[in-house]
Every structure is written in C-alpha cells, then in structure tokens.
C-alpha cells in the first residue's frame, strides 16, 4: 500500500492520497487526489473523464432518433428521465407538441425514474456511512421499480422509451395497476427508511452540519436539483419552467435550510413522496387518445400499416435509415431529472443530424462544488459528501 | 415576455458599441457581443437588480470552420428570481483567447476547462486551464469539425 500514501518533501506532514477511479465509495469512476493533514483534507482535486465516450461528438453523426439510446447511458440510474429530456428538446426544435396522453405518460416516466434514482442514492449513501440495513431495504424496492420499468419498455436500464413526437408505445391498464400498487406502497416504505435514519444518533452526527454550502455558493457553482434546494433555494425546473404538463399537477417542492448532508437527505426523501403524489394524480387523470403525433415524416407509422401499405413502409424506411430534417435554428431545453437540471443545447443547420448537441449535465456542476465542500473536513466526511451529492459519472463524463 | 428579450434590449442600450448581433428562435433570444467586453457585460448581467442572472447554466462552443472568427462561445444564463434565460454569445479566433468569466460565476471554471479540452480555445485569466475529460497527454481537440466523426 506504500505507493498510495505519499509524503511531500516540502511538507512532511502532508500525505497525498489517491482515491478512485475504482473505489466503492466514489460511486463509479470518480477519482479524487486528496492532500491530507492527518485526518483533515487540505485540498481535493477531482479527476474526471474515465467514462468519457464522446457523446456530443457522436450526436453529430447520428439522426435525432438514433441519439435517444445514448441518453440511456448518461444517467444510467434514471434513463427514462433523460429519454424524456432529449425528446422534448428535439420537439422544441421542431416546434411540435405531443398529445396530452403522451405528456402524462412522460410525467409518470420522469417521476418513476426519480423514485428509482433516489432509492439507489439512499441505499448506497447509508451503506457508505456504515448503515448496511437500509441498503437491503431500498434495493428490494428498487428491484420492484426495475420490474415496473422492464414491464413498461422491455429493458431495465437501456429503456429508450421516448420517441421524437411520442413514446415507444402506450401503457397498458395492467401496467398501470402494477404501478398503482407501487405508488400506494412507497410512502409507507419511505416512512420505514426514515425510522432507520432520521433520528438515528450516528446518522445525525455524520450528516448534520457536515458538507455545508450556502445558497449563494451553490448557485455560483451551478448546483441544481436536491443539492441546491437543500440550501433553501427553491429552484426546480418542473415549477420554474414547466414542461410536459407539470403545471397541471399539485405537488410541493421541498427545500432545506442548512445546506448540509442531512438537509439533502430530507429533501430527497420528501421528493420521493411528492413523486408518488404526482404519479398518483397522473394515473387518475390520464387522458385518453393517441400517444404519438400524427406526422408520418417524424413518427414511425403503426406496424400493421407498415405491413399493408406501401406509403407507410416507405415512411418507416426513411425515418429509420435517413431520419428527418430539423429546421435551421438553435434551442436550449432543460428538464428536472433526479440529479438536477439536465439541458440540451441543439444547433441545427437544417440537416438530419445536429450540427452541435451540447449536454448540460447536472452531476458535472454538482461535483464541481465538491472541493469547496470538503476542504477542511475530515477524510471520512469526503465519503459522506460524495454520496450526498449523488453524482453519476456516466452523466459527468458523457 | 419571451426568454431573454428584456436583457437583449437592455444590453443593446447599455453596451451599444459591444453589440455584434442578436436574434431569436422559438422565443429564445440571444445576443452576441465582442469578446473583449464579455467579462464586463457578464458582471453587469449578474449584478444589475433588473437583470439578476445569478446562475450560469452552461458554457460551451460551436465550431464554424468557414468563418473568419471560427469559434462561437455560448453562455447560457439564468435568473432564478425572474425565471428568465438568456443566451450570450461571443466570437473568437481558432484558439481564442477569450477572457474567462470564472471570476463572475464559479461554475465557469469547469465549463471553460471542458470547452478548452474539446475545442482548444484558451481562456485568459482562468485559474486552472487543464484538460478535464480527455487524458492529460492527449493532443487533439475532439469537438472541432476537422476531427473525424468516424474512421472511414
């Protein structure tokens, strides 16, 4: 182990510690180089890029439809939410609206993804701080959530559920029934998780007053999502700039006051409850009607029609092989994914592929604030901070 | 009011000499200014109570190799209090330099590093301009248009 602990010649008391990129508590391939003065962190330098796949470059060589599967692999804990984000961005560029039923199904997707993502966050966050029991409980429910995702679109992780102008297919009444069971059970389950942690003295000691950041600093670092709201700033894209019909739902945006790890914990727990509320309303008020836009140039025709009609066959062939042209222009569109604000900036020159597609990922900016939060902290608090920021490296590195 | 409309008018009025272009698409307004005035304008957009763009959403670039100023820097600003978004642009030569706005918003530090990493644009006054996603010893800038999309 000697090579991992290096004493500096100028400051014999300072130890350089390399953490990651392959370390269970760095949540993927985050690598930190820490300078330690005893147990205290003198400086923290994150090194990124271990999961960089060049998605923004790849997008320039793909049709808009072909890019959707890449969004599965950004935040791989909530691919459904990223699928909705890219579909809305391209629809915004095209200037089309999807039918009401599709909008509501997408809201269900986003909220289901939020619950799933937060279940993982809670389990591993508690595990990182030594509370292994919570992990087993949240992973049991996360498995339930994945069963629902699999029933919805046939995949657990690589969902690719949305299309430009709609979704893969309509939801079935049986699936809605299964979702209802999940949504009804979750608030009770969240109470169970809370009973293990919220008043647990060890949990309180490890989280209260640790990793504090002020609202002003959080905004300056571009933090979004629960990490920003825990500081008391009420910024949620779903409310500030509603999309996909979020303005029609009744829900609260929980905020914290201290901006510490404990507040981030409380905010995310409440967000899960609110997500269940939104899904419950969405299921109750799910409009009837088509789920896809009726535009043969953009949306794949119905399979039955493809097999019986020449024109539809041509449309299907054209959309799959050539894609469709987007008008010349540029848009930025963002959605509130479980980690924060996920934005797509698309520049189109009227071609079938974007001229430039920029992904503004929430985890990238959230991680940028990590050195500010941990410098001066104990080494053990670095672990707690990483977990509470809930970064996903697939999204940071893209 | 459409996104950024008020700010575009205000910048045009206050910094008429810096203005080099403006436009809109799908109700999203953008403004282009001279790169030498970027920091000053950004600071004003952040501090002026009428503007209050406290949150820098993103910094990135678009490469237009045919143009005399091939690098288009794009800043997305957002005002949390006003719920308004603004797209600010500036142009630079092939490798910059462009003044860094990392003193105005701290998030610019990493975003500018990524822009340097992907496009090779240098940012003047940046505290730590290193590659961020590509390896340290990498020599190319992948998001430039001359970088091949695939090995064909």
What does this structure look like?
The complex is a heterodimer of chains A (398) and B (152). Chain A is of the alpha+beta class and 398 residues long. Helices cover 49% and strands 13% of the residues of chain A. Chain A has 17 helices and nine strands. Chain A has a four-stranded antiparallel β-sheet with strand order 1-2-3-4. Chain A has a three-stranded antiparallel β-sheet with strand order 7-8-9. Chain A is globular, with a radius of gyration of 22 Å. The two termini of chain A are 32 Å apart. With 152 residues, chain B is an alpha/beta fold. Helices cover 21% and strands 29% of the residues of chain B. Chain B contains three helices and seven strands. Chain B has helices at 5-14, 38-47, 108-119, and strands at residues 19-25, 28-33, 55-63, 71-79, 84-92, 98-99, 123-124. In chain B, the strands form two sheets. A five-stranded mixed β-sheet of chain B has the order 1-2-5-4-3. In chain B, strands 6-7 form a two-stranded parallel ribbon. Chain B is globular. The termini of chain B are far apart. The mean pLDDT of chain B is 90. The A-B interface holds A 48-49, 52, 54, 56-58, 60-61, 92-93, 95, 217, 219-222, 233, 235, 240-241, 329-332, 334, 341, 343, 345, 347, 355-356, 358, 360, 364-365, 368, 372, 397-398 and B 25-26, 28, 30, 54-58, 60, 62-63, 74, 76, 80, 83, 85, 87, 105-107, 109-111, 118, 131-135, 142-143, 147, 149-150.
According to DSSP, the number of beta strands of chain A is: 9
* Strand adjacency order, main sheet of chain A: 1-2-3-4
Can you write the helix and strand succession of chain A as a string? EEEEHHHHHEEHHHHHHHHEEEHHHH
- Round the mean pLDDT of chain B to the nearest integer and report it: 90
Helix/strand-derived category of chain A reads alpha+beta
- Oligomeric status: heterodimer
Determine Rg of chain A (CA atoms, Å): 22 Å
If you compute it from the alpha carbons, what radius of gyration of chain B comes out, rounded to the nearest whole angstrom? 16 Å
Which percent bin holds the helix content of chain A?
A: 40-55%
How does the overall form of chain A come out from the CA principal axes? Answer: globular
Indicate the low-confidence ranges of chain A by residue numbers.
Answer: none
Biggest sheet character of chain A: 4 strands, antiparallel
Return the string of H and E elements of chain B.
HEEHEEEEHE
Specify the number of helices of chain B: 3
The percent of residues in helical segments of chain B reads 10-25%
Taking the alpha carbons of the first and last residues of chain A, their distance comes to: 32 Å
Q: Outline of chain B, from the CA principal axes?
A: globular
Largest interface comes to: A-B, 40 and 35 residues
């Amino acid at each position: 182990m000697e090579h991992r602990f290096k004493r500096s010649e100028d400051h014999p008391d300072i130890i350089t510690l390399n953490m990651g990129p392959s370390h269970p508590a760095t949540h993927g391939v985050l690598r930190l180089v820490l300078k330690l003065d005893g147990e205290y962190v003198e400086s923290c330098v994150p090194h990124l890029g271990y999961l960089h796949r060049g998605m923004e470059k790849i997008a320039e060589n793909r049709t808009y439809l072909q890019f959707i599967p890449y969004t599965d692999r950004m935040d791989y804990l909530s691919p459904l939410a990223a699928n909705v984000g890219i579909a809305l961005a391209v629809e915004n560029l095209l200037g089309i609206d999807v039918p009401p039923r599709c909008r509501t199904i997408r809201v269900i997707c986003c909220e289901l993804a939020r619950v799933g993502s937060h279940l993982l966050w809670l389990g591993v966050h508690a595990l990182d701080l030594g509370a292994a029991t919570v992990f087993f409980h949240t992973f049991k429910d996360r498995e339930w959530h994945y069963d629902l995702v699999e029933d919805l679109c046939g995949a657990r992780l690589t969902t690719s559920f949305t299309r430009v102008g709609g979704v893969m297919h309509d939801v079935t009444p049986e699936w809605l029934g299964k979702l209802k069971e999940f949504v009804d059970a979750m608030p009770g389950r969240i109470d169970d998780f809370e009973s293990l942690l919220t008043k647990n003295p060890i949990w309180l000691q490890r989280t209260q007053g640790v990793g504090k950041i002020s609202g002003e600093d959080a905004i300056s670092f571009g933090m979004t999502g629960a990490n920003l709201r825990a500081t008391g700033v009420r910024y949620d894209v779903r409310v500030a700039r509603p999309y996909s019909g979020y303005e029609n739902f009744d829900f609260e945006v929980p905020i914290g006051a201290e901006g510490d790890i404990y507040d981030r914990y409380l905010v995310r727990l409440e967000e899960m409850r609110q997500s269940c509320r939104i899904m419950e309303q969405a299921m109750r008020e799910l409009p009837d009607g088509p789920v896809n836009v009726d535009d043969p140039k953009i949306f794949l025709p119905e399979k039955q029609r493809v097999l019986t009609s020449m024109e539809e066959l041509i449309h299907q062939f054209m959309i799959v092989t050539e894609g469709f042209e987007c008008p010349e222009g540029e848009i930025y569109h963002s959605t509130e994914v479980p980690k924060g604000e996920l934005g797509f900036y698309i520049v189109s020159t009227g071609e079938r592929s974007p001229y430039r597609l920029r992904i503004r990922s929430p985890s990238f900016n959230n991680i940028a604030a990590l050195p500010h939060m941990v410098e001066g902290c104990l080494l053990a608090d670095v672990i707690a901070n990483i977990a509470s920021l809930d970064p996903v490296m697939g999204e940071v590195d893209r | 009011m459409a996104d950024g409309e008020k700010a575009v008018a205000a910048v045009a009025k206050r910094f008429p000499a810096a203005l080099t272009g403006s436009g809109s698409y799908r109700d999203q307004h953008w403004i282009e200014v001279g790169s030498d005035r970027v920091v000053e304008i950004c600071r004003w957009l952040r501090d002026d109570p009428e503007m209050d763009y406290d949150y820098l959403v993103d910094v990135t670039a678009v490469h237009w190799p045919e143009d005399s100023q091939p690098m288009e820097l794009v800043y997305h600003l957002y005002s949390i209090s006003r719920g308004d978004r603004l797209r600010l642009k500036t142009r630079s030569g092939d490798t910059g330099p462009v003044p860094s706005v990392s003193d105005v918003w701290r998030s610019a530090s990493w975003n500018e590093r990524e822009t340097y990493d992907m496009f090779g644009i240098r940012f003047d006054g940046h505290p730590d301009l290193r590659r961020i996603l590509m390896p340290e010893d990498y020599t190319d800038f992948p998001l430039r248009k001359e970088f091949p999309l695939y090995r064909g």
